[in-house]
Amino acid sequence: MKFKNDPYSIILRPVVTEKSMELKETQNKVTFEVHPKANKQEIKAAVEKLFNVKVLSVNTLNVMGKKKRLGRVEGRTKNWKKAVVTLAPGHHIEFFEGM
After folding, report:
1. 16: helix, strand or coil
2. Which of 3, 76, 82, 83 has its CA 20 to 30 A from that of 56?
3. Structural domains in the chain (count)
4. Rounded Cα gap, residues 43 and 11, in angstroms
């Protein structure tokens, strides 16, 4: 995947897990899978442009892929980058409201 500096190539998908939903409800934080080469400033700008919200901070982490095995064949799932975005009080993303 080529990295372009537009919001749609930086934000790949939302991460919808029990832990991420708990963060959204209690601390107003949303979680996204982002492009591995994107930095915090690019992620902040992309979220603000795509969802029209005010971002206070961005925390990122690289998630290492897990080892998987199917019979004798061993492999790995892909490595990916996760971003936890803290939104300003009073701001929310409509996509996450129904979940």
Report:
1. coil
2. 3
3. 1
4. 7
Rounded Cα gap, residues 63 and 43, in angstroms: 17
Cα–Cα dist 96/99, whole Å: 6
pLDDT at 4: 76
| Whole-angstrom distance, CA of residue 31 vs CA of residue 24 | 8
**In a domain? residue 38:** yes
94 vs 55, residue with greater confidence: 55
pTM for the structure as a whole: 0.88
Element (H, E) at 20: helix 18-27
Decide: helix, strand or coil at residue 15.
Answer: coil
Q: Could you tell me the pLDDT band of residue 5, with boundaries at 50, 70 and 90?
A: confident
Token output for 74: 């061993």
Cα dihedral: 25, 28, 30, 36 (round 10): -140
The pLDDT value given to residue 99: 58
| Whether residue 1 has pLDDT greater than 70 | no
